[in-house]
Amino acid sequence: MTKLQTAFIGLGVMGSPMAGHLVKQGHKVTVYNRTESKSAAWTNTHTGQSASTPKDASLNANVIFMCVGNDDDVRSVVYGESGILAGLHENDILVDHTTTSAHLALELAKACKEVGAHFIDAPVSGGQAGAENGKLTVMCGGDSATFEIVEPIMQAYAQQIQRLGGHGQGQRCKMVNQICIAGILQGLSEALILAETAGLSVPQVVNTLQHGAAGSWQMVNRLETMAKDEFNFGFAIDWMRKDLGICLEEAKNHNVTLPLTADVDQKYKTLQEQGMGRMDTSALVRAVKRSL
Length: 292
Known about the structure:
With about 290 residues, this protein is α/β, with parallel strands linked by helices. The chain has helices at about 15-25, 35-45, 55-60, 70-80, 85, 100-115, 125-135, 145-155, 170-195, 200-210, 215-225, 235-255, 260-275, 285-290; strands at about 5-10, 30, 50, 65, 95, 120, 125, 135-140, 160-165.
């Protein structure tokens, strides 16, 4: 594969290791982060350079990746005189790894087309550990020709990459992913309550069930810490509520009701109000226990 000039916008717990994997695969990478100290820390660790604006990071890149917080954060680095769009050239590709609304994906695809560039929405699943280990799942929306260009590049940090259809379909698949996680955690919370009440050993339960039909990543990695009431790690409730809000809004657009998702979302809201917004999503068990 031809090594391309790339840029990576957003060096959080996901973006920083993802950009690092691109370097390890031989790509030239220019990074940008709103907090300059993170860019400096990244360039001290990896071969690459930093830029003072998203535009400057994009000027010499063929493919620009971004992974920031939410729809507004994406717009803040894409638009304006110093935004990514101002640095795009014809046939450049913008790839958004942020979990956003499908509406924003369509908006960005249109904005890129207007300057002769291309766009792929590509939210990821796998968390910080997946990013650090290069084992992310990437869900993509966009045209097939553009996808074929960026897919081999994303293999630097992904174990599964799938194009789901046109623009927005990657984000919609990520919504399905988050709904599944919400349901699994609700089920695990109730299962844990029964297991503890019945005097079962939670480690033994996990060891027994993980290879059967009930097995899941959440069971293997979270049930024992849920039993220990440990939640100071992982994917924060604040971010999950953002994601579930996107899911519920998309469902509304399709006249679909999601009762379990709405219920879990409200439980997370209660935990946020109690100051637990930065805890891992598995803290849902606290809200389930209090609702009994």
